[in-house]
Design goal:
53 residues, globular, mainly alpha, 75% helix, single chain
Length: 53
């Protein structure tokens, strides 16, 4: 996780991007695919999306 936080630009940006994902349902492109994969895996939203399809 520390590596992802570093790539995003620190804990402040990490929290901002995570909140935006939870609130709006998408990850800003500048956050990167690795961040998106991490947030989806820890939030459990991947399972919800699979259950709905």
């Amino acid at each position: 996780m520390a590596r992802i936080v570093g790539k995003v630009g620190g804990y402040g940006k990490f929290a901002k991007y995570a909140w935006r994902y939870i609130k709006e349902g998408h990850v800003p492109p500048e956050a990167g695919a690795e961040f998106a994969d991490f947030v989806v895996s820890v939030s459990g939203l991947g399972g919800v999306a699979e259950a709905c399809s």
